[in-house]
Protein: Enoyl-CoA hydratase
Amino acid sequence: MHDATPAEAKPVLLVEELEDRVVATLNRPEKRNAIDQQTIDALHDLCERLESNPRTLILTGAGGTFAAGADIAQLRDRGAAEALEGINTRAFMRVRELPMPVIAVVDGYALGGGAELAYAADIRIGTTTTKFGNPETGLGIIAAAGATWRLREIVGEAIAAEMLLTGRILNAHQSFAARLVTHLDDDRDEAMARAHKMADSIAKLGAQATQATKRAHLAPRSAHPQIDLEEQSVLFESDDKRERMGAFLDRRAER
Ligand SMILES: C/C=C/C(=O)SCCNC(=O)CCNC(=O)[C@H](O)C(C)(C)COP(=O)(O)OP(=O)(O)OC[C@H]1O[C@@H](n2cnc3c(N)ncnc32)[C@H](O)[C@@H]1OP(=O)(O)O
Structure:
């Protein structure tokens, strides 16, 4: 277990580094995992360490909440310069652009910046307590840390507009129906077990191919199909591709 803060301080992000995956847990349950500057710094540290490392990142929250948003106590005192700096946005974009699959296990509330961090993941798994919402306009600000574009990519324009413009909070079943989560499990333990099972599957796939897929998946529409062809041209020459296809044809591969 690697802590993102000095030993004597309570870590706001618990980071467990396993052989082929990392589990990062937001850890301010008494503040419903509200994302403060320390958490943002810890997310940057995490991304730094992950750039070249594991096959999968699993992101979750402690204490029955994913994250109740950016820390309002800190947001209240921020001005125009800090808004333009995009303190949360830059950290969440970095999570979005990580080279490995990112799975968010969203138990309880994912609101405001908490939702936006979950939107930065590739895959979201919910529980029966999951609740997604973007209540920022109720605080006199916009959902500037990703929701105005990313939410629409996930749920489509109609639901995104309703969530952003009315602040409506979706319960677990509504979140599943909107495809904000692709699975709903009974509780966090079950959802984590599912995330680990996905990480097991990912660990068996071609590492280079997974990273290439993620790059192509994140690329703008205008980059396609050229980016697919270029990524494929590298993979077609790889030893891993030759070995995996040979294993299939020689019946050495698991079927
Ligand atoms: C660009 C991005 C912007 C944003 O993200 S803006 C923030 C958007 N988020 C919200 O507006 C949600 C705020 N939180 C809530 O509405 C509620 O919490 C919940 C519904 C999530 C949970 O309610 P319950 O279980 O009754 O807990 P509790 O008593 O409200 O909170 C426990 C402690 O956590 C603090 N807290 C909760 N959310 C935040 C937050 N987002 N920023 C700062 N503190 C927060 C509270 O104040 C309190 O603290 P204390 O015990 O000291 O009174």
